[in-house]
Sequence to fold (158 residues):
Amino acid sequence: MLHKILVILHLLGAATWIGGHIALVRVILPAALKKRDPSPVLEFERDYGKVGMLALLVQAGTGAWLAGTWLGGWSNILNFSVPSAHLVLVKLVLLAATLVQAGYAYHRLLPRLNEVSSATLADADKPLRSFALHARFTTALAVLMLIVGASIRLGGIL
Fold:
């Protein structure tokens, strides 16, 4: 029963994380770029940021437990005779890249957008484009994590 609950929580975290980023990339960012106005991005991040980070933490926690179970213990992480051990490693690399991206956005990109929103909108183009590129890359990482996770569970899409 615990295993099923953890899978459900893991999937809810993935849906929240990926869905939020797709909404950002497909709805919020195009409007902000068109108007050269970072305020919709900042508002979205203020509202979604905590929910998104909670979803990512839920995924990391449940994923660690599920992977340990799947591998037969974390000591098997480098034992490539264990099915899907290589995919668990790929997910860990993608998670690390995602955490780096999240930290960069929080500490570098969002403060730059905040500065621009308090200055003139004419200065917003470059920081907005940088943020858009970052958001697209983070979304791609999230989708790749989902594909790798499905590969683990379904026995080898990859």
Q: What stands out?
A: Helices lie at 2-35, 39-71, 85-118, 125-154. The chain has a mean pLDDT of 91. The radius of gyration is 18 Å. The CA atoms of residues 1 and 7 lie 10 Å apart.
